[in-house]
Amino acid sequence: MNALEYVTILLQTGLSSLTAYLAAHVLLCLLPAFFIAGALSALVPKEAITKYLGRDAPKWISYPASALGGFVLAVCSCTIMPLFASIHRKGAGLGPAITFLFVGPAVNILAISFTGVQIGMDIALARIVLSIVFGIGIGLLMAWFFRQDDEAHNAATNGGGAFAREDKVPGRTWVFFALLLGVLIAGTLQVGVLTRSYATFTLPGSWAGSFQAWLDSVVPPNPALGIEGVSVHGVLLIGLLILIAVTAWLGLNKVDEGFNGWTYVALGLVTLTLVVASFKVVAIAGSPSIGSRQGLSVGVTGKLIAEITLIAAVWWMAARRFEAYDIQEWLWEMWRFVKQIIPLLVVGVFLAGMARALIPATWIETLAGRNTVWANLAGVLFGVFMYFPTLVEVPIAQTFLSLGMHRGPLLAYLLADPELSVQSILITNSVIGRKKTAVYVVLVTIFSTLSGLIFGWFIR
Amino acid sequence: MEIKILGGGCAKCERLERLVREAASELGVEAAFTKVKDMDGIMAYDVMSTPALVINEEVKSSGHIPRKEEIAEWIQAAQGT
Prior knowledge:
heterodimer; A: mainly alpha; 3 strands; 4% strand; globular; B: Glutaredoxin; four-stranded mixed beta sheet; 3 helices; 23% strand
């Protein structure tokens, strides 16, 4: 193989994983997940949770509340560190602060739903359950190791009035979250009721089959490497995504100052894209000589009906049950997350896709093909030393999976990567000092390795 | 008047600062703005989450971005005293 062919193959695998991501996965999973993340950030008053994290809160309340807080409040890194520092210094103390710090990055709504769709619900569930259990475990251990420091600290600082403030989540916000979660679940859950087509019609035309053939030649599917290729449906959806990007830029960048025409266009396109993505579309390259029909077969799925109903309910609530200011905040936060995460994710997916063709599968199989202590530790250490932006750990993990990594070490890697990076260790260091940080890092390494090991043993 | 914005320089803090500056200039109030970005400086106030707004050493809001009308009321109240 000459160099040119090699580069072509690399670019092809990168491109095909990128297009497959955009067309198949980003849409029904990430699009709703970003709306949920924005709503968590904008519509949940922080005091609704921090009131349980005060100095005098009993342990059986403060630890679970910290874990919940990690899920609800930690969508943005700019909330994590100040909250971590204040829970440690003024609130419930070191233990719950550590629980909060541990749970936050591992179980945010974006990471969990993306992991579930991309790698499997088993890993996503394990990520939630083990993060919460071990987050509380590590918090309790840290509090016990440094119990004397915490007591001295308690005596030195007076109680934080900030934690005494109360607030609660209004009922309409709960309903709103339920609807948004419904959109996410209906779009991603693979059960018969949702995936079955209840009616099918065919758009005639021979272009569909030949277009599909052309797509297969540009980005050839390669099941051996887990490369899916792109469908006609996918191309349409990517086109819509690009339109959303342009209109959202015009309509959502300044949404905090009010809606403009582009805001409605962008939101309309988001709705349209989710609806189009819910159809089941297959190009049929039938042969005309035997009279079979050519064209695009379009199936009306259960998913489609569910999505249309739920999205309609979401917009109705947004328009009628919330103040315009709340909705502006919600969209502003959502768009901010998108701008922060998506560009890095696109680059990450492309590179992770190229790596599939670059890294010999035998390396991964030798290193982490079986569920051993060393394999799990290797997964954790890779997570610590490689710093990937939020969510990019998921395509990286998928690359490993397709190259033969065992699911146990894979989970160990997925737990450790967002928790520990050189950057996050330095920031933690500045808040709780070198000694506690060192103990924390060691505990996270041990616990992540153990989680992978237990999970890998469990699914065998 | 002394106005402080607490927060590590994220997008929300910048938006808060912009709103406060607008509110102050619309009222024609002279104010000295300080941005507090380091954790110790932020923790010196009774806040849990950023961005937070401090007017004349009194915490007015934290963890969310208040509306401009609210900010204007706080500035007027602080001026009256």
